[in-house]
Amino acid sequence: MELNIYMFNWKNVPKGFLMGIVELVPGVSSGTMALLLGIYDQFLGAISRIVSKYYKQALAFLLPLVIGMAIAILTMSSVLDYFLQNHTIPTHWFFMGMVLGVIPMMIRISNVKAEFRAIHFILILIGIAILYAMSMFNADAPPASSAGMGAGDLIKYFVTGVLAASMMLLPGISGSLVMLILGVYPVVIYAINEFTSLNFEVLPILISTGLGIVTGVLVASRIISHLLKNYTYLTYAAIIGLLFGSTFAIYPGLPVSAASWIVSIIVFISGLFISYIFGKQQNDTP
Description:
Blueprint: H1 12-24, H2 30-36, H3 40-48, H4 55-86, H5 88-110, H6 112-115, H7 118-136, H8 151-168, H9 175-181, H10 185-196, H11 203-230, H12 232-250, H13 258-280
Helix pairs in contact: 1-2, 1-4, 3-4, 3-11, 4-5, 4-10, 5-12, 5-13, 7-12, 8-9, 8-11, 10-11, 11-12
């Protein structure tokens, strides 16, 4: 790929903002948004070049995206924190809708009818089984406000950051979804919201998670580039399985009132529609 595409461009700040918003929501990944915005190849390529002799060009391309993502995270986290704390069930139903709405796009770009064989469907089942098993470990997550900050907790946030960053680069799996599965998502959203309110006691959570994300991005970008280049449809099959399986982790239970039922159904359909419309605009594989 030509290196002259890796140039600083302020027009990428709004694209980064959109990528940041979807990364806050456990559903559509920033990788998916980069795919929909037509910059996925450049995004992944720039990340993989950060630790090469072309790091200046890579940083020039990534900087406006990072600025946009940072603005989205700092300005939108309080909104998400409010809905997670006060309207938990409808919010999670919205997340489920967004996750399931991505699947038609993944099926289309995977060319399932022509490319998938038995091994691909086995991978889908494995992905579903893995996330179902993982969701069982997060059934009784503690309140975000009671998050621990001991050495063990900070290591957990770091490892979660590594895994989340690895997933957010894939066109389909949200890094925040990984955090939700591991019980860290409400904690991180709470910490960001508290930090923007000048409560610096949560800084250890943000630092450990942030270091994990940086580590995951640098390591995973090369691995994912290799997998998508050499095992494209096997990788897509795994992503589809993870998307289906992630609904087990997001599912919050059934609404408890008629009003809650109505709101949950409306936001679920809205989530489906938003993801489907974004995905419908993308006709080419990354």
